[in-house]
Amino acid sequence: MNFLVLKLKFSTPLHIGESSSARSLDTSVIAPCADTLFSALCHAALAKEGEEGIKKLYNLAMQNKLRISDAMPYFNNGKNDDDRLYIPKPIIPFAKSQPENRKKIKKIKYIPVDKLFDFIDFADGNDKTSFEITPEDFPEFGKQYVLDKAVISRTEGASPYSVGLFSFYENCGLYFIIGFEDEYELDYIRNLLTIVGLGGIGGKVSAGYGKYEIYDEFYLDDPWDEQTEFLNNALQNKNYKRNLLLTSSLPTDNELDKAIEGSTYNLIRRGGYIQSYSYQQPVKKQTQYFFAAGSMFLTRFEGDVYDVSRGAGHPVYRYAKPIFLGVDK
Fold this sequence. Notes:
The chain has 329 residues and is of the alpha+beta class. It has one domain (2-328). It has 7 helices and 18 strands. It has helices at 34-49, 51-62, 99-107, 116-124, 183-199, 226-236, 253-260; strands spanning 2-10, 66-68, 72-75, 84-88, 110-112, 142-153, 157-168, 172-180, 212-219, 242-245, 267-270, 273-274, 283-284, 288-291, 296-297, 304-307, 317-320, 324-328. A hairpin with an 8-residue loop joins strand 3 (72-75) and strand 4 (84-88). Helix 1 packs antiparallel against helix 2 (51-62) and helix 1 crosses helix 5 (183-199). The longest helix has 17 residues, at 183-199. The radius of gyration is 20 Å and the shape is globular. The chain starts with a strand and ends with a strand.
């Protein structure tokens, strides 16, 4: 499988509701999971080609010709042209007792690609390795805030509500990794991503949120620095003892028991409502709990694309196919 990094630069704030919160409207996390990206692609494919477009995306994923990571942040300190890429912090137990540093580490969600081995060595108890939380390595990617708004009705007057938003700083944005087999199919995904960017991704896109443009892209089989060389090797080589999950995803029932052996993980709730003209009123998707990006596994799994329509109307697909990063030979 080939891998491409796609960087997005946002022109409007982003609303991605906190999935574990009942108040998802007035909260927002920094980045969408892969199933949100896939759902947005499905809506773009439906607008472009009708039901055949959705079937095409579904088949690409089920035939393992398409893999998507969660979105992750990048940062540029302005000193050079290269953006620094960040990945989810590995979910691993700490063998070392450093209370103050551990409290700081617990608060961070992403670490630089070039600091991954230092982090793992530190967590595993290597006395020769230190891991410090510095502003240079762990910058702020943007600003999280709540915007108060109101719906105006002639009969009921103003109904106030709040929307949680995240605005990226000028030198920051999101990237994700696409695994693909064929250039023609990659062009198709690129085209859909361009359509999604015009309308926005996440929640409240009707209010203009979540708009982006594809800022940059590059193939990982042509690395030019330490971080791209590591990503290329770690994505292509499956012979690693431990594997970092880059996609919030879920094994099939047949894979689950083997996958959790020796694993360290967090779970993330995936829910939401079905957006379809076929439904006359909002219908909830089937709720599932995925392994969160950053979870660590000894055994890789294939996952699935689940129908979460709860048996009503047409299929509604939730993407749960993983991308793994080998981190320990």
